[in-house]
Write a structure and sequence with these properties.
single chain; 359 residues; six-stranded antiparallel β-sheet; 25 strands
Length: 359
């Protein structure tokens, strides 16, 4: 297992687990990856199963990191030691579960690769309908008196790594809101469908008003002066989500981000901006892809997507922008599979590339 950047090997840690009968290989760099940088992960074909059968085909995964880097990280719980998290059935909001199976705990067997502490929390669950108290909800509660509960404002992004079981159950964050003189409200993020196996970083950008979900808040807006953690919440829908399973959690934290390049040595000259349109990533894609570009001078920027017949299907950007590096997201939902063309126009210059939507 090798991770490369510009031909150089990046030190990694990896862990193998089995989830719902599938092998899950989690790979993580020992140090933070460099923002806006291309990487290649190579999984060699000589890897075998437990009885010696080789994979037979090398796996190569190319990816590019986000424009954003972290300027602050504030750990809430790294789950290295048990905190005051309640058992799920301890909350009166938890409904529709089998209490003999559903529980919260801590483990040394599954954890995020390359952490300081090789431990994580887990939530084992089993849904069970109760006619006297209908509905499905698990509220995994962290009381405000716990010393790991911190106060924060909406300049932060709330993050946690979740080891998913591809159950198609749903997850969201819940926070308490302070207004004037008391903690008067509960606010939640929108539901996230757990449709992946292995570790994934899940986040809630608290400054985004469109990211707020619906529960028991009267206004569904983050208008308080400060906030604190209430709970993780898990939801279920019959005929969609798995009836039982287990999720793992690691590195629950608050972060702040920047698009400024971090970790650059003072004696290294800055990379000059130029007019450039990058290849979209991922490509092929389904249904969302990212298009990055940079402009060396301010100007009116127009980024447009066309089908193979030359018909316009989307305008991603059409406004004045200062010199800098930018990214736009194209959603091919509702479009048919095939080749699409994206075109960047700025200051009399035109750049064109192709991308492939595969459904």
């Amino acid at each position: 297992i090798t991770l490369l950047s510009d031909g150089q090997t990046v030190e990694t840690k990896y862990i193998h687990h089995v989830m719902r009968g599938r092998s899950v290989l989690s790979v993580r760099a020992k140090d933070d990856l460099i923002q806006s940088t291309a990487y290649r992960l190579i999984i060699d074909s000589t890897i075998t199963d437990t009885i010696g059968n080789p994979m037979g085909q090398i796996q190569i995964i190319d990816f590019e990191t986000s424009l954003f880097g972290y300027i602050e990280k504030k750990m809430i719980d790294d789950f290295s030691v048990p905190a005051g998290w309640w058992q799920p059935t301890g909350s009166g909001s938890t409904v529709g579960v089998d209490g003999t199976v559903t529980k919260w705990g801590f483990t040394k067997n599954v954890y995020l690769p390359a952490p300081n502490f090789k431990k994580a929390a887990y939530l084992q669950y089993k849904w069970k309908w109760d006619n006297s108290n209908p509905g499905y909800l698990i509220r995994e509660y962290l009381p405000p008196t716990d010393n790991k509960n911190v106060e924060f404002d909406t300049t932060y992004v709330l993050q946690v790594y979740i080891f998913g079981d591809s159950s198609r159950n749903t997850f969201r964050f819940c926070i308490d809101e302070y207004n004037g003189s008391s903690w008067t409200d509960h606010e939640v993020s929108k539901w996230i469908t757990i449709d992946w196996y292995g570790w994934k970083l899940v986040e809630w950008k608290l400054s985004d008003p469109n990211s707020v979900g619906s529960w028991i808040s009267p206004n569904e807006e983050l208008t308080g002066s400060k906030y604190r953690i209430d709970s993780f919440q898990l939801g279920h829908e019959d005929s969609v989500g798995a009836v039982s399973g287990i999720l793992y959690f690691d590195d629950f934290r608050l972060v702040k981000k920047t698009t400024e390049l971090l970790g650059i040595t003072e004696n290294k000259p800055p990379v000059a901006l130029q007019y450039r349109l990058n290849q979209n990533f991922p490509n092929p894609f389904n249904p969302i892809t990212t298009i990055r570009y940079e402009i060396s001078h301010a100007g009116n920027v127009k980024l447009t997507v066309y089908n193979i017949l030359g018909e316009q299907v989307a305008v991603l950007v059409n406004r004045m922008q200062q010199a800098g590096r930018y990214e736009a997201h194209f959603d091919g939902k509702g479009l048919s599979s095939g080749t699409y063309i994206y075109r960047l126009r700025v200051n009399g210059k035109v750049f064109t590339k192709k991308m492939l939507l595969v459904k």
